[in-house]
Amino acid sequence: MARSYTEFDNLTGNILKCAYEVHTKLGPGLLESAYKECLAYKLQAEGLFVEKEKAIP
C-alpha cells in the first residue's frame, strides 16, 4: 500500500515537534547522547517505533 504525502508530512511534523520539545526542555549544551535518549523516549511515548543507531552495512 502506497503512503500518501500527507501521511509523511504528518509523521515528519510529529517528529520535528518532539525534537523541538525535547531541545526546549533540556536546553542547549548537553551531549548528543542525552538528546538522543530523550528524543527516543518522547517518540516512543507518541506511539512511534524507534531504532537508535541502527547499523548500516
Overview of the structural elements:
This protein has 57 residues and is an all-alpha fold. It is built from two helices and no strands. The protein is globular and about 40 Å long. The protein starts with a helix and ends in a 12-residue tail after the last helix.
Rg, nearest Å? 13 Å
Seen as an oligomer or otherwise, the chain set is single chain
Q: Sketch the topology as an H/E string, one letter per element.
A: HH
| Shape, per Cα inertia axes | globular
Indicate the low-confidence ranges by residue numbers: none
Q: What's the rounded overall pLDDT mean?
A: 92
**Annotation field: number of helices:** 2
Strand residues, percent = under 5%
Number of strands: 0
Q: Structural class, from helix and strand content?
A: mainly alpha
Biggest β-sheet description:
none
Helix content: 55-70%
What is the first-to-last residue Cα distance?
A: 27 Å
Question: What labels would you give this structure?
Answer:
57 residues, 2 helices, globular, mainly alpha
Topology of this structure?
Elements lengths: L4 H22 L5 H14 L12
Helix pairs in contact: 1-2
Give a quick rundown of the structure:
The chain is mainly alpha-helical. The chain is built from two helices and no strands. The protein starts with a helix and ends in a 12-residue tail after the last helix.
